[in-house]
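Incident review: delayed structure delivery

Summary: a single-chain prediction request sat in the queue longer than the usual turnaround. Root cause was a stuck worker, restarted by the on-call engineer. No data loss occurred. The affected request and its eventual output are reproduced below so the record is complete for anyone auditing the incident later.

Affected input:
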Amino acid sequence: MVRGKTEMKRIENATSRQVTFSKRRNGLLKKAFELSVLCDAEVALVVFSPRGRLYEFASAASLEKSIDRYKAYTKDNANNTTVQQDIQQIKADTVNLAKKLEALEDSKRKILGENLGGCSAEELHSLEVKIEKSLRTIRGKKTQVLEQQIAKLKEKEKTLLKDNEDLREKGILEAPLVVPTLNCVAPLPLRDAPEPVKSDVETELYIGLPGRNRCSNRPSG
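Output delivered after worker restart:
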């Protein structure tokens, strides 16, 4: 009698499903045992029935030992896989960054007016538009900074004027002092300066050679 091909779908009849489970479970456990003996392989098998009953097989000393070995292997393999993926991603990112850096350096040289020989008319026009836009932005920022500085100076001036007015109201500060010029400054008398000594000695000025009648410039009488 030739057996037909079994259709792979859930068996609806509960009795038939339980019978099939028992037969195939025993066959699976037998195959696992044969594989471990014939091929000297470490085999671990875990099966739960539809009702939640556990069936297990382990060619090692215990099923826990095989599970621990499986966990260690998958962990190391996962770590190695992750490291390799990270390395590949880093390499790809490095290549992309190098390309972007080269493009930026080329754009910088063109903005400075270098290496324009290979540029087309469209590229030159686009570069001109970018430069003009940058200049407008820079000039606007410069104007804003200057306006802010002027506003701060005006505020400082108002504060100083107010402080000056407050001091005048309190009588601490008098009217603004006028610094006299040097021509208007009278010499100050020195303290404890000795008075000039009067001398009774008279001096005369004579004009002429010695031994002759000398003419004096002193008035007579």
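Verification: The first strand starts at residue 44 and ends at 48.
Action items: add queue-age alerting; document worker restart procedure.
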